[in-house]
Amino acid sequence: MGLLQIFDPSAKPTPVGIDLGTTNSLVAWVSDGEPTSILDCDDDPIVPSVVAFLPDGQTIVGKEALAYLYSQPSETIVSVKRYMGRGHNDAETARERGYHFAPMREGQANVVRFVVHGREVTPVEVSSLILKELKRRAEEKLGSVSGAVITVPAYFDDAQRQATKDAARLAGLEVLRLVNEPTAAALAYGIGTQRTRGTYAVYDLGGGTFDITVLSLDDGVFQVRSTGGDSQLGGDDMDRAVALAMLAQAGETEPFSQANWRAAMIEARRVKHELTDRPASTFALSLGQREFAHELTREAFDALILPVVERTGPACRRALKDAGIKPAELDGVVLVGGSTRVPLVRAYVKKLFEHEPLTDIDPDQVVALGAAVQADILGGTQQNDALIVDVLPLSLGVETMGGIVEKIIARNSTIPCARAQQFTTYADGQTGFDIHVVQGERELARDCRSLARFTLRGLKAQTAGAARLMVTFRVDENAMLTVSAKDEATGLEQSVEVVPSYGLSDEDVEQMLMDSYEHAEEDLKLRQLTERIVEAEQVISATHKALDKDGDLLDEDERAELDGALRALADSIASRDSEGIRLRTEALDRASVPLAERRMNRAMREAMKGRTVESVEGDVAHARGVDAHVSDHAQRRES
Ligand code: ADP
Ligand code: MG
Question: Which of the four pLDDT bands, split at 50, 70 and 90, describes residue 522?
């Protein structure tokens, strides 16, 4: 444990913006009107979204966790964002290799659970560890954090948004709002604050995901006009293409050894980054006994990655079509994601959208910076309250007879919004309504995502079709849904805030909070520190007493050494350095051995002069610094 910093109590807690990315995460704030990322000690704003779970229960987040990817791949979780709000049966879960997943048990929420060293952790917990690390970084810089705007992909559904909020809660962060990533990127460019209208395409190519969004801004109000993309496309595919080509060049044939493949992927990424700023680079690899080196020009690299880049085209064209807009009608194109630094990507985007893309802001940081701008607006330090409106990515409806879905709020509706629809009974004498809330575009309920079920009971028995039930869907600014149902005849009403069945219930989250591993660890550390301080203070006090009484038994050097050990231990206590306290307590014990021995002899000699055994025992104990209390007691009795 390091120094505890004492902060100026008059300093106001600061709102922050967080980009919780699949590959990388960042936290930013607004400093004197300028959005700024918070840097680590290497001046790097990026925290890799990687969490390593160690056998002893420790967790490691970010850059340091990357090292464990090779030594314990199944216990080092990457791309956890892909599992947020996902259930056991989600296709993506089944496809994933490497990790161990816990089987679903009776009565448990339907969420993915990773098994790490015999312990089960949910994606929400893993994400909360990343958020905690970002919060810690922010607090180190800002003192205290008042709340966070967290970004999510525009296509995130209710369960995924809820899971993100749960993770924040678990990390002890108040969510000011969830904001769509493309909207945040636009805000960073002053779209929405300095500019008040226009239509923009936001092209986001990250490590393993590609998102395209068309946004329009009207009188400072944002609307997502369309979204699209590919959840399995990104910079990793470029690395793969380069690694494959280089191994082939080296005469290696598939299947490659795991070690060769890993090394090639790491080298491919390094070369890719270098080629962003240079016309050529050298790919170098040791393959068992031999070394392989090959020059890779930007041109050759471009040819290798062109198929990857071109895979973004269809989704872009579809998004433009869905939004009903032609490239020339766009007011701008915003680049987001580390992979848009690649020159070929920039050229491709320019051609596709017929616009020079906006690139002034670092594409790695643009989402976090925009989130910080929004946090600053919501945090109340700014007058200009830019309103952000998003649209619902998927339709919401209820299941009706025959398993057919009746859509209540259509996809792409502007949120926040509310819509009501009337339903009636199907059978004579029906006294209850079973309401099944679903999300998705398909016609049959079984093909949509089930969000919630509830029953309205106690209706008046009537003939079929006579009852009137009003079902209202309300979606708030975070795209969270509340459903209520009211029987017009009896006035009976019931409502649920939708806790998606592919998510964690409030109780689950509560339980996780209680079990919070991190807290347990912190609590343990604090207890250990307190115990060590108490013990150290006892030893110091006993030593001072011994010195007061028998200090004359030491020579100058011995005395100096003991004084030094006392000072060092006092320093460790002052800085609450737990390990330092332990070591220096031991050191003080060692340094006081000569004094203790000589005091013991002196006490024995005194005893020979006919004092009571009891008092000698007391003095001996005192001399050894074992129990000052017994010693005091004995002396008092003597006098
Ligand atoms: P995500 O949004 O998925 O969390 P990022 O936006 O941080 O991911 O993008 C990560 C990707 O960007 C990685 O594939 C990385 O190799 C790539 N990248 C980062 N810097 C560069 C660069 N200078 N040149 C090319 N690619 C880069
Ligand atoms: Mg991103």
Answer: low
User: Is the predicted pLDDT of residue 187 greater than 50, yes or no?
Assistant: yes
Which entry of 125, 139, 166, 181 is annotated as an active-site residue?
A: 181
Please say if 181 is a catalytic residue.
Answer: yes
Q: Is the dihedral of CA 38, 44, 48, 53 positive or negative?
A: negative
| Ligand 1 and 21: CB distance under 6 A | yes
Q: Verify whether ligand 1 is closer than 6 Å to residue 619 (CB atom).
A: no
> Of 221, 185, 164, nearest to 479 (Cα)?
164
Given the residues 204, 237, 239, 619, select the one marked as catalytic.
204
d(CA 32, CA 604): 72
**Cα distance between residue 19 and residue 27, in whole Å:** 6
Residues 6 or more apart in contact with residue 310 via CB below 8 angstroms: 348
114: region left, alpha or beta (phi > 0 left; psi from -120 to 50 alpha): beta
Mutate to test the pocket of ligand 1, among 18, 23, 127, 202 (most ligand atoms within 8 A of CB): 23
> According to the model, what pLDDT value does residue 612 have?
52
Instruction: State the pLDDT at residue 511.
Output: 63
- 552 as an active site residue: the answer is no
With a threshold of 0.90, does the pTM exceed it?
Answer: no
AA letter at 187: L
Q: Is 19 a catalytic residue?
A: yes
Does ligand 1 have an atom closer than 6 angstroms to the CB of 82? no
Q: Is residue 351 helix, strand or coil? A: helix
Ligand 1 centre from 100 Cα, in Å?
27
Domain annotation for the chain: domains and CATH numbers = 2-189+365-379 (3.30.420.40), 197-233+311-353 (3.30.420.40), 235-308 (3.90.640.10), 396-509 (2.60.34.10), 517-601 (1.20.1270.10)
321 CA to centre of ligand 1 in angstroms: 28
Q: What is the Cα–Cα distance from 554 to 570, expressed in whole angstroms?
A: 21
What is the distance between the alpha carbons of residues 329 and 9, in angstroms, rounded to a whole number? 51
